[in-house]
Design brief:
The complex is a heterodimer of chains A (113) and B (116). Chain A has 113 residues and is an all-beta fold. Chain A is built from no helices and 10 strands.
């Protein structure tokens, strides 16, 4: 595809349930990022993948959050035992290896009830 | 520590007016990169510009211009002759070369409303 795609676009879940969010980066982009955007706030970095290197997980807010990526393809962000404070838009971005600009997907709006 | 401050939470202007969005940053890194992104009502962030810390040349792209001043740690964004389509939330962001991830640190955004 031409851009970063994410699914689902919206997710409503009950507190305590697990959710899985998906990101398809731009083809050929080796770097992939997950960010979280709470209502009315800027984006917070969650995790970074670069090729087959160990991911940078320094932004993950708790051990309920995890993410996977195989090679340079799709990534999934999993939130276990969701809490109401997890409600936010989760944005994925990708960039080419030596570039600086990140290109963002449309996000997944997560609502925990 | 790194920080990006966008003190203007919301700005409203009448169409065709000029408007400047302020951005002040903090970093200890000597090599860093500054960005502006636009987030229209659809929600998807759109990349506008990147500047490197070693290049203080101002840039103009159509109605958009950017003023980077290291002396004041500012990277301001001006829209001339604003249009309704410019209505969006604008984010300033910083990345540091010393961080392997080059992840972006965002300000809290400025919501611009252009009134027809």
């Amino acid at each position: 595809g031409a851009g970063v795609s994410q699914s689902p676009s919206n997710k409503v879940t009950e507190k305590g349930k697990d959710v899985e969010l998906r990101c398809d980066p731009i083809s050929g982009h080796t770097a992939l990022y997950w960010y979280r955007q709470r209502l009315g706030q800027g984006l917070e970095f969650l995790i970074y993948f670069q090729g087959n290197s160990a991911p940078d997980k320094s932004g993950l807010p708790s051990d309920r959050f995890s993410a996977e990526r195989t090679g340079e393809s799709v990534s999934t962000l999993t939130i276990q035992r969701t809490q109401q404070e997890d409600s936010a838009v989760y944005l994925c971005a990708s960039k080419a290896g030596l570039a600086y600009e990140q290109y963002f997907g449309p996000g997944t709006r997560l609502t925990v009830t | 520590a790194q920080k990006v401050t966008q003190a203007q939470t919301e700005i409203s202007v009448v169409e065709k007016e000029d408007v400047t969005l302020d951005c002040v940053y903090e970093t200890r890194d000597t090599t860093y990169y500054l960005f502006w992104y636009k987030q229209p009502p659809s929600g998807e962030l759109v990349f506008l510009i990147r500047r490197n810390s070693f290049d203080e040349q101002n840039e103009i792209s159509g109605r958009y211009s950017w003023n980077f001043q290291k002396s004041t740690s500012s990277f301001n964004f001006t829209i001339t002759a604003s249009q309704v389509v410019d209505s969006a939330v604008y984010f300033c962001a910083l990345s540091e070369a010393r961080i392997r991830a080059n992840n972006l640190f965002f300000g809290t955004g400025t919501r611009l409303t252009v009134i027809p």
